[in-house]
Input
Amino acid sequence: MLTCEQKFQELYHKEPEGISFCPYRICPIGAHSDHNLGKITGLAINKGIHIAYRPKENGVVELCSLQFDKRAQWHIAQVPAQRQGDWADYLRGATLELARRYPLRRGMSGVIEGTLPIGGLSSSAAVTLAFLGALCRVNSLTPSALELIQMAVSVENNYVGVSSGKLDQSCEIYSKRNHLLYLDTRTDEYELIPTHPQMPDYDILILFSGVERTLAGSAFNMRVDECRSAAYALKAYAGLPYGKFAETNLREVPREVYEQYKDRLPDTWRRRAEHWFTEYARVEAGAEAWRQGDLETYGRLSFESGWSSINNWETGSPELKALYDIMLHTNGIYGGRFSGAGFKGCCMALANPNYTEEITHKITHEYLRTFPNLEGKFSIHVCHSADGISLSPSIPSVG
Ligand code: GLA
Output
């Protein structure tokens, strides 16, 4: 398969002027916290989205992706106001967001390349940020990290229509190699906790189930609303002011209030809130464990986070649950869970590098015994922690 740089040359008979790169992210502890303003821990990994690009003086944005068939095109001053229902919506929305804040003079031609299969690593945030990076560069704009995060989140919330929080974008921007990002999504305060000198080495394994899928918007949004409903009801039971429904969130509910009134909640709302409150505690304990170099504890908390996603958040396809179960019984894995929202895609694991070969062999064997039809589609990728988004004016090697 061609790289984005080669494809660009083939299409335009010119070198790209730059390559914009944004890494994917993992979130071992802190799933489904962000949209209700909780805390998260996460890391960027050394795989992501590359865009080979050149400016276009006539203001046209013209994009193709090595992963999708259709090419997409629009003018910086005439972006469709509604989403069009294809992969390029994130980038139409991003053009609108940037144009709302800054004058745009140039468009760009670009070729997009994703380095891992889609689902669970937040390729949507990564492609949005890589694109924003390129469009800013061709227009000589330098928005702050926080502005980039806000624009990319707004694309998902307002243009694409998914009620996601800022976990993905924050990990993909703030992360630093060999550090754990610990972020409070309510205040935007964050800390990059260095890997303790005594912490054992680890590989980040991405176990791709073989079933690709972008975020299942309706199921995702319903769970966010279930959390809001729980927050609304709990505040009402406790006599707290509850404000506008669309702005309410579990972060505004003290844990004691939840414990006191949780049995009055409908079962599904209670489970969603149970996940949120226990995940909040796991994130705090996990950040402390990382600080101490205690990878065993951090990993165990990630396994517990996975359990709660299955039983309280009630997500996970049969493939992801099977992978999670196998991981639980595999030597050399400190911990892991579904990566991302949990609707198909992949699991991530933190693993002892001395066991990587053995783990790969065991998981592949057991998984394909259950899902023989996924032979050739299931894959394991060994990754490492990485820095957040970088914009490079020169052309690094791609791959
Ligand atoms: C998706 C969303 C994030 C976050 C995760 C689950 O990746 O985009 O905002 O909610 O799911 O933790």
About this structure: Confidence is low (pLDDT under 50) at residues 392-399. The domain at 4-194+387-391 is CATH 3.30.230.10 (Ribosomal Protein S5; domain 2). The longest helix spans residues 267-292. The two ends are 11 Å apart (CA to CA).
